[in-house]
Batch of 4 targets.
Target 1
Amino acid sequence: MADFVQNSQTKSAIRELAEPIADVATFNSIVQSVITDNPFACVLYMSAGVTHDPVEKTKEGYTVKVIYQDTDAKIVGNLSDKFSTIAGFNAGATAILANTALSTAHGGTPVRDTDNEAFSATLKCHDPNGELYMVNFSRGRVTLTSYSDEAIRTRVETWADTVTALA
């Protein structure tokens, strides 16, 4: 299995994945499992009088990629569109593929370029020791930032070793 390797003195570590995460459903399943199952044993905390969940999604983005092909399957155009939710990503992809005006303007038939689509989500986690750290998931890597206790990296790495898509 791939290991997280500390990449600077500011305590961040990156795990480059052997293969990109296959699709948005798999990606969402991984992210939601961290939020729901709390495998890093994070704890509730209060900040400015507001109670925060142990793990919170602070940012996410999903990019649809479409290529337009002529009758010889030659690429005659492309489109990239970013959405802030998976629902928007899925609805946007459907709308783009159905947009005949875009197809006509490109002079080709739209085809999803799923291999080049991008997904990312950042989770904020509150460790029992009081530290707040971030885990950022993207299609090709997992980044752990803003931690100082090596036990945090060990917990994240141990969990990641159990997730096939994060090998």
Target 2
Amino acid sequence: MHELRDRFGSLVAAHRRRKGWSQAELSEKTDISVAMLSRIETGHTGARFPNIERLAQAFGIDPAELFSPHIPGSALVRPKLTAMMARLSRLSDNDLEWLENVLDAVLKHR
């Protein structure tokens, strides 16, 4: 069950970041507290249907998209990627930027 919460939380965080919103901005748009959004994004708690609907509406997506990423080689078929996404969702934007630079350097030398 934690894998589903982690995947859901990672996708909420990804959609929020894609929109360029802070958790506070998403909180204003959904009437979900920042504390609850943080717990959802980090996989510490799940979301109830009303909150799932609010999140999907704020992002302008179908609620199902919060459970299934539409990317090749998705985390749905790669459990290791799901776990990594959950861990990455806990990092600050600065840490993610640093890690992205490290990843770019590693991939450049492959």
Target 3
Amino acid sequence: MELVFWFCLALVVYTYLGYPVVLFLLVKLKRLFNRQKLLFFEPSELPRVSLVVACYNEAEILEEKIANTLALSYPDDKLDICFVTDGSDDNSDEIIAKYANIKHFHSDERKGKNAAINRILPLLKTPYIIFCDANTFLNKEALVNLVRHYKDEKVGAVAGEKRVFSTNEDENAGAGEGAYWKYESQLKKWDSELYSVVGAAGELFSVKSDLMDPVPDGIIIEDFFLSVKIAMNGYKVRYEPEAYAMEAGSSSIAEERKRKVRISAGGLQAVGLFAGLLNFFKYGTLSFQYISHRFFRWTVAPLSLLILLLINIYLVVAGAGIVYTVLLASQVFFYFLAAMGNLYELKGKSSKVFLIPFYFVFMNVSVYQGFFRLLKGKQSAVWEKSARAKLKKT
């Protein structure tokens, strides 16, 4: 039992702390022995691109999104702006119709984002495609900073950075989500520098058109699916922090839970789909990154946390030693802080003291909820958008 306890503890520590440290050290070593510069397109060489914005009943923010899109710094003659509003029954179509330089695609039938994108793929005639969400706002140089990486023919996709801002309306959900994405963004920077990003956020993501195959029906998180498929085919997926998508945090923990459960279900689905990536002898560095960054986080770590608590209780009752008593007390205290964070959230309050324990437990509980939804076939691939607090831009 003691051996299992320490093994599970090592897995949890490695997943959240050990891998970032190992990754950082490997990147440092690579910088010492490999000073090869990244290849970038010069501004005059920028290729034609399609910017695809998938919308579903986003009329409330559509004018603002369009204004942000039209203000992006990219040659007009090399940019095709495409808005897809399949299934929308608000006045999104009327708003988009006011802009002659926007290509509008609409179908009354709502089949989800994947189906909408698959439907218009044959109509896109540019060598590169950039996807972004309707509820995100891009920095002015986002497209240039994404596309310049394609000067390197080994690059098959480029992911932008997701930045989450919290407001008074969403302080608990937004602050936790924002802290998580800062941590995640740093890992992606190092992943990209070592070899390749393992999974991209759909808020801002670009691909080479000839690598963009239709996403199969039923895929829950299509951005992750696409980026991993491209990496498995031998191309690198870069991460560009200077191309970022800004969005407000979820308007409440309930809304954030809905989003996290869906992502967890999609992650577990991906674990089954990409079982081949566990073959280190075939995929090498990519396999190491996938196992450490994704596989452990979606499977091993949540299970190990539960086993740790149960075995720790058993060892204390069995009188295994003072060390286990101290460790159990530490676990109980940590979960107490998380419970207090949940209590504060229910009362509409927030506390930075409880934020990290609460959000950590919240994420891992979401994995279990996502697993049961996936197991029961209740997790639809059709995106049900989470309510977001209003983004206050300066």
Target 4
Amino acid sequence: MTREDILATASRLVTVERAATHGALDEGLGRIGDLWSIYLGQPVTAVDAAAMLALMKVARLVENPRHADNWIDLAGYAACGGELATGAGS
């Protein structure tokens, strides 16, 4: 896949498909952050959750860097975290 393909696929997934499946970005990642906060015993924000999910994809890339889905999801989590962190979606 080219970088254009990866970004286009990630864009489609996070703005259309996953949005329809998982609901509003801030609510979904906020819910993940809330649950991780309980488990870890310290605050985890929606932005933290996006960053930690991106790190999960990096960990998977170490095992299999040729698996395109990991690159696509990494781009998607970065975009979601960036939108939340900069307030662009508000």
